[in-house]
Amino acid sequence: MSVKFSKIPKIALWQHAGILTFLICLLTWHWFSWHPFPNIPVWLIIALYAPFFVFMEYRPTKGQIYQAAIARQERKYASYSVNTDSKPKISKTSKKVIDFKAYIEDRKNHNLFIAGSSGTGKTTLMRYLIGLFPKSIKTIFSFKARDDYLKLGIPILKVSEHAGDPFSDKEAFVLSFCVTYPMNTQGVTAASIPSILRNTLRTCNTWKELNDTIESEIQKEKPGSFTHSAFTFIQQKLTDLELKTQPFKMDYEKDTVLDFSGLNESAKTFYGEFYLRQVWHNIEASQENPMKHIVVIDEAHRLLKSEATIFGEVARLIRARGALWCGTQNYADLPDYISNQFAIHLLFNTRSKHDIQALEAINYLLPFVVTEMPDHHFTDAATRELHDAIPIFTANIGKFKDYPENYINPPITETKEEKPTIKIEGYTEKVLQYIEEEASWTNKLAKRIAEEEAIEYEQAKFAVSKALKVLLSDGKVAREKINLGDKEVILYYRKDPAMSGLHRFMEREKAKLVGLGSVAYELAKPGEEKADIMTANYDIEIETGLKNDLTKLQKKLANVRKKTYIVVPSDAIKERYLKAFNNPLVVVLRFDESLTYDMDGAIT
Q: Percent of the chain scored above 70 by pLDDT?
């Protein structure tokens, strides 16, 4: 089985161009018998030059990567070999220089990840690879203090001081929260958290508004209830995520190192996921251009706790516009559905049990290779030649020049004034006053408050919703579904022992319709045993559906001699009344159904 090597880079040929020219000249002169050294035989010239050529070709030059391979039998130019007939044993021979930039560009998919034990050379290799693509826009996610990525000379954004506004993308806020806290806790399932948090965020644009809203919900809900537990869980977790930072908008078209080291562990994951989503949205909107963008994520395992992460989507779709490079200690950190999106799997020394099992399934020699390789040696577990030989690379890179940490200092700007937080207590009585005047629904109440108080409609709607919850809890108002044309609304009305606000609303609205038909009508006075609305040709009974016993009304209409309409709020209540009345003179109508008239003005 043969061992295959990548071509020597062109620069290696240029190193010997002058010497080769000199040798050719000597040979030419010798053949034509006019060279200046007639007494020196050709074989001696070649013998003197050959060792020098070999030394120049294979000398350990800094800043290069050498490739060799483990083959089934010992091969010339294989730096390591394995004899499978006996116990595997590594033996050194020669090495060949490899152009790793060409190695990456040769793949249609430029994604790569680097895995291995701490201190084996992963970060050194990543720094070297980053330097191979100076024209690409690089966004680097760094999570460790004093990280080598901070010394690249690339502008650094310290997230703990200048984080972006997570409320600018509320869906990203929700999903980043789910990636940070994917476990089930306190009886609250992961599936319930997104919808609860998403609904809460609709009216919140700052941390203060969010915290106030959640606290209000906790106070209103019954302790121990599902919703109370959910809001309590969210409240506890948000304390680790809130940052008192100066807002800063990142320029995604420039090289940037995102420094998350100043954050707690939960915040690192939350803002790491949030920024990855923002970076990806910018890349996705750009034109297709391979290797234009390189996203480098160190400690990638932080974002792989939940399938809610956008990591897999980025790995799958970025290839037309750039590449995703990531580092992690364990090869098994990346689930199969994600690791399959990476064409290059660079592995340093590791002894992780899970890694060994995963590698053994690929090639039975890989576990031996990765456990025996010294530092700064690595292999590619996804190479196309893996069935022929296992490549081993030596990163003879040397030391990098470390640049001073170049932190971005955004200009001081005036802090945007927060919208005033609505105090729910101040609007509860006002909402009750409006409902006492006339039964109404949330949108209608919000519109009225927004106009009278000169505040935004969404804020008014938020205040009304919270006030209605308080009034319902206190038993001061009640609600009922009612049909209004092609939509159904929740009507809130004042509870009254004598007559409900719902009854008064329906009676007043229906009386208006009768009047619009140019029909004279009379309203029954409280306590009178008469129809609610009376005309010369028909009567109207207003029924809210709140009565469980319809016996009294059945007796009242049993011997009716005039057409009578029973008006109810909704279809559900209409069905119940239709079953209770079979008198042909009694017609049950939904509240919003029109009364029609014949030529004489009588209802048909």
A: 71
